[in-house]
């Protein structure tokens, strides 16, 4: 189904706020319509929920056909014995969680955009989220994907070929369906921990990571903590979990449960919208080892750049206002000197192309040429 031309402009940007120009927008309702749209288009950009923060879903130069996958939202093939489910690319994570809850199961990867994030988009970016310390990336929980290539042909790709599509941000093909592995739902609680210094943050995080019941360690800097009325100092949200049938309960003495727990977790999800509302709209996602945390944070604090993030896995979210954006290349250079990665979860898209190392560029280009010889998908992104 093609979109009315008057509504195309809605699809010419994503959460990165970058602006593009689309040739047209198509809403496929099934795999056959995806095949037709791809086969009849010279250039294609695949769009999930448009929550990307690196411009990966922004059409370029009026040449791209945008495939909005939101109408492909079927959930099929649930297998209670194997703890797997088959889903179409447009399924929203929270809707999938609601479906699985009645069986006592969940998909454990938890990005802050869970209310709107699509499974196809999560696979394409290899989404991480707040519980990465325990559950890792989306690709850890994918058994196979079904993709449409540049000729409009359908292929099923298993674990050994998954890296050609997961984390490749749509430059290698259209993910139309996937089989996901599931985890038992847990009882969860959380505590808010005040920490006085950056060095203490490192010590506390190291100690918490030894506890197998900890599933989330989220960090707020002093400024964000103060604005959120949490008090002075740095703060950590620490989530604990236990099996739902464990009479001992979650391993967090005095931890919040029920509505208080839910309110604390919702606070984490509201941080970026709050910071962006204060004018810090450029959000980055460098990933560093915990022993380099203090050096990066010291640099950011000296420049009054607000920071929060998944400190348990070393992913930070520095947020820059318009005047501070000129500092991004300097920060990326520091991250590289510290042995870190320029992107821990948002992807490369358009915004971070210039920061990809030469050897990594070569690898990405080789994968692109092998999987998309027609150079049809997401041209101008990543590489």
The oligomeric status of these chains comes to single chain
- Tell me, what is the CATH class of the largest domain? Alpha Beta
By CATH's scheme, which homologous superfamily of the largest domain applies? FAD-linked oxidase, cap domain/gating helix
Sheet having the most strands: 6 strands, antiparallel
What would the CATH topology of the largest domain be?
Vanillyl-alcohol Oxidase, Chain A, domain 3
Work out the helicity level: 25-40%
Spatial order of strands in the largest sheet: 11-13-12-15-16-14
Strand content: 15-25%
Tally of alpha and pi helices: 10
Keywords:
22% strand; Vanillyl-alcohol Oxidase, Chain A, domain 3; single chain; 383 residues; Uridine Diphospho-n-acetylenolpyruvylglucosamine Reductase, domain 2; 5-stranded antiparallel beta sheet; alpha+beta; 16 strands; Uridine Diphospho-n-acetylenolpyruvylglucosamine Reductase, domain 3; 3 domains
């Amino acid at each position: 189904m093609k979109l009315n031309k008057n509504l195309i402009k809605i699809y010419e940007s994503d959460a990165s706020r970058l602006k593009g120009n689309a040739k047209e927008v198509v809403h496929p309702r099934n795999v056959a319509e995806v095949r037709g749209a791809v086969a009849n288009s010279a250039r294609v950009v695949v769009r999930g929920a448009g929550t990307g923060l690196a411009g990966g879903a922004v059409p370029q130069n009026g040449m791209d056909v945008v495939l909005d996958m939101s109408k492909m939202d079927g959930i099929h093939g649930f297998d209670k014995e194997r703890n797997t489910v088959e889903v179409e690319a447009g399924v929203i994570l929270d809707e999938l969680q609601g479906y699985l809850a009645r069986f006592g199961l969940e998909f454990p990867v938890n990005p802050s955009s869970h209310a709107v994030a699509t499974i196809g988009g999560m696979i394409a970016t290899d989404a991480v989220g707040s519980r990465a310390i325990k559950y890792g990336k989306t690709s850890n929980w994918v058994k196979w994907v079904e993709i449409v290539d540049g000729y409009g042909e359908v292929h099923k790709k298993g674990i050994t070929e998954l890296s050609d599509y997961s984390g490749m941000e749509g430059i290698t093909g259209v993910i139309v369906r996937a089989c996901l592995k599931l985890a038992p739902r847990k009882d969860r609680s959380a505590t808010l921990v005040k920490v006085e210094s950056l060095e203490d943050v490192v010590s506390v995080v190291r100690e918490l990571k030894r506890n197998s019941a900890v599933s989330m360690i989220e960090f707020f800097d002093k400024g964000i903590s103060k604005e959120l009325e949490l008090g002075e100092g740095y703060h950590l949200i620490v989530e604990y979990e236990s099996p739902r049938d464990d009479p001992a309960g979650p391993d967090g003495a005095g931890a919040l449960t029920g509505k208080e727990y839910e309110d604390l977790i919702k606070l984490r999800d509201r941080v970026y919208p709050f910071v962006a509302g204060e004018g810090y709209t450029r959000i980055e996602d460098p990933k560093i080892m915990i022993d380099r945390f203090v050096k990066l944070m010291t640099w950011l604090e000296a420049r009054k750049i607000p920071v929060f993030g998944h400190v348990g896995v070393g992913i930070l979210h520095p947020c820059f206002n318009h005047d501070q954006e000129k500092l991004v290349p300097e920060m990326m250079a520091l991250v590289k000197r510290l042995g870190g990665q320029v992107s821990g979860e948002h992807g490369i898209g358009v915004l971070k192309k210039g920061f990809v190392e030469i050897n990594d560029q070569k690898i990405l280009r080789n994968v692109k040429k092998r999987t998309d010889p027609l150079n049809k998908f997401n041209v101008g992104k990543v590489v």
